[in-house]
Amino acid sequence: MSETLENLYSETRQFPPPEELAANANVKADAYNEAAADRLAYWAKQAERLSWAKSWDEILDWSNPPFAKWFIGGELNVAYNCVDRHVEAGHGDKVAIHWEGEPGDTRTVTYADLLKSVSQAANTLTELGISAGDRVAIYLPMIPEAAVAMLACARVGATHSVVFGGFSVDALSTRIQDADAKLVITADGGYRRGKPSALKPTVDEAVAKCPSIENVLVIRRTGQEVAWTDKDKWWHETVEQASPEHTAQPFDSEHPLFILYTSGTTGKPKGILHTTGGYLTQTSYTHHAVFDLKPETDVYWCTADIGWVTGHSYIVYGPLSNGATQVMYEGTPDTPGRDRFWQLVDKYQVSILYTAPTLIRTMMKWGDDLPAGYDLSSLRILGSVGEPINPEAWMWYREHIGRNRTPVVDTWWQTETGAIMISPLPGVTAAKPGSAMTPLPGISGDVVDDTAQSVPNGGGGFLVLRDPWPSMLRTIWGDDKRFIDTYWSRFGAGAGQGDAVTASSGKEWVYFAGDGAKRDDDGSIWLLGRVDDVMLISGHNISTTEVESALVSHPSVAESAVVGATDPTTGQAIVAFVIPRGKVDTAGDKGEELTAELRNHVAKTLGPIAKPRQIMLVPELPKTRSGKIMRRLLKDVAEHRSLGDVTTLQDSAVMDLISQGMKGAK
Ligand code: 6R9
Fold first, then answer.
1. Which end of the chain is more exposed for a tag (fewer CB within 10 A), N or C?
2. Which DSSP category does 70 fall into?
3. Distance between CA atoms of 399 and 364, rounded to whole angstroms?
4. ipTM of this predicted structure
């Protein structure tokens, strides 16, 4: 990619916060000034929201960049912060988790219940020989024990590595091996799409390839038959029989809390390492600031899976450290019906909803009538994460779910950043549909050109982060060099010098996020997708996001994915895959009429340069378990290649459907 990204899309709608929300917001506009005046003091103040067994001596040690240390000398226990302190403050009876199983069974878990389970699980971990610094793999469905298992690890100082339930034997075993884990916590299975889906057989096969595993703790969820080995122990025969007394020991602020693997498009998965004090400080603070959580009255629901970083930071650590009451749902959004989400919002009177653009666009496809049938008046803040949210999807979310009242916060961050970095503040920002707006107080995000110079307003380029932040990744597990190469060698002090760089080079270290972005005329930041996906059409750098947003702005389109396919005349040409909205008729000639109309619509919205060469109408798009579109597979289809790595695909049947449709096309 050369200096800039073409800036084709313009959006002028803007929505200031409701007055009452603004007046009572947890974080107000002065926070930006306060953080700008003294960034480290600002973070130290946020760290004080937590309970420390020993205070820190120094806020940030950046003497050995890019290896940061935060709150040096401080000691705390993460589980104590997420559970015990709320019980000690008299909130033991408060609901922590309203859990809803897919078949409709429910459990209500209070903070006192959570304390009991986490303490019991911590005692069992100790009995099984797990001590501080050991690694534990967690492979579970969305049941309360998933949070309990993570917190129990944190409580005894073990480093957890959560793997999406449903990932393959290969994915699970390579992650266990890379982290050299001693224990797996799993379940017989979980419910997905109306039926039990087994997990234990995958664990059995994986463990057979992983000699480091000494024990497997198995939760009974579905009651399916399971094979049994002498490493296996039932959770209900161990944890649930263990003593509920356990005193949490504090750990060093830089003690490893978890490893979470990100797949990326090439190479082996990267084990992103997060530590204790800085991570909890920023997840807790951002959850408080971005969702304006009022723990006494709000009911919060993040629809992510715990296998995704969003589940770590915004189901477990952020919300629980803030004493939130939240909803946790086991299953898929279309079981038993496509109204399940709205039924749950209505039933639990959810006030803060945090979900992904993929789900919002799916809901658009399913039609406006479904949410219209429910009382969604409890909602006061809506959040989005995972991909750029197209302006039309943002508008639909605000209108049909937020009933035109609620702020929408589009939150940009990554597994690597650990917590939200760029987002509106719901009581401060006049948000624009499709923009993540501005870095949070204490965060320095920037959009730069090839030479790491900030682009002017109206320009596009690469998203970077300039100063270390508390919840930043500390390294890639076992691979410091890859950590430097991947994130720190594109720009700034680390550029082109490999690991020979020293702090004395005088240049600033710049974190390369791998995302394209632009700054609009007011300076607001718009994310434009992964730089690997940027298309080069007749010498113009065009982002996939802008073309997709143009397509989604057409009333017949629910969702779209575009890729640049090799083309003899233009270098690359735009090929678009489009899912029509629910009621759109695409039978016979109607389909061709629609694609012709859509090609013209894009040309009219963005200019002729962005007109797709070809548009395919498809029933589904290939997505990861966290809902990100896998454009690389669509590119393989568009260029008539056999498919690359499909191990992280959510539903493998989708690619067959798309490839078949492609064969039928010219
Ligand atoms: C939290 C999470 C990180 C990548 C990131 C970017 C994309 C996430 C976004 C967004 C535009 C947003 N991304 N949030 N793009 N707007 N609000 O998703 O972590 O799974 O590691 O993915 O997701 O491309 O670089 P992770």
1. C
2. E
3. 11
4. 1.00
| CA separation for the pair 26, 21 (Å, rounded) | 9
Rounded CA gap, 197 and 552, in Å? 34
Residue with CA nearest ligand 1 atom 6:
387
3-state secondary structure of 152: helix
Beta bridge partners of 223: none
Pocket test for ligand 1, best of 387, 432, 435, 525 (most atoms within 8 A of CB): 387
Q: Can you state the angle between helices 544-552 and 589-606, rounded to 10 degrees? A: 120
Q: What angle do CA 632, 637, 639 make, to 5 degrees?
A: 90
* Protein residue with its CA nearest to atom 23 in ligand 1: 386
Cis peptide before 336 (omega within 30 of 0): yes
Alpha helices in 56-166 (DSSP H): 78-79, 85-86, 111-127, 144-156
The pair of three-digit structure tokens given for residue 105, joined into one six-digit string: 């069974």
What is the C-alpha R_g of the chain? 24
Cα of 626 from ligand 1 centre, angstroms: 10
258, 270, 385, best to mutate for ligand 1 pocket (most atoms within 8 Å of CB): 385
Angle of CA points 501, 505, 507, to nearest 5°? 105
Question: Which residues does a 6 A CB cutoff place in the pocket of ligand 1?
Answer: 262, 309-310, 385-388, 410-415, 436, 513-515, 527, 530, 626
Contact 342, 292 (CB under 8 A): no
What is the whole-number distance in angstroms between the Cα of residue 385 and the centre of ligand 1?
A: 6
- Which amino acid, residue 112? A
Residue nearest to atom 12 of ligand 1 (CA): 412
* Residue pLDDT, tens place only, 281-307: 999 999 999 999 999 999 999 999 999
> In this predicted model, what pLDDT tens digit does every residue of 566-619 receive, in sequence order?
999 888 999 999 999 988 898 889 999 999 999 999 999 999 999 999 999 999
Q: Looking at ligand 1, which atom is closest to the CA of residue 422? A: 17
Alpha carbon distance 150, 122 (integer Å): 10
Q: Which residues pair with 352 in a beta bridge?
A: 300, 381
Q: Which ligand 1 atom is the nearest neighbour of the CA of 530?
A: 24
Pairing of strands 408-410, 381-384: parallel
Distance from first CA to last CA of the chain, Å, rounded? Answer: 31
Cα separation, 435 vs 84, whole angstroms: 38
Are 287 and 25 a contacting pair, CB within 8 Å? no
The yes-or-no verdict on residue 40 having pLDDT over 90 is yes
Atom 11 (ligand 1) nearest CA: 388
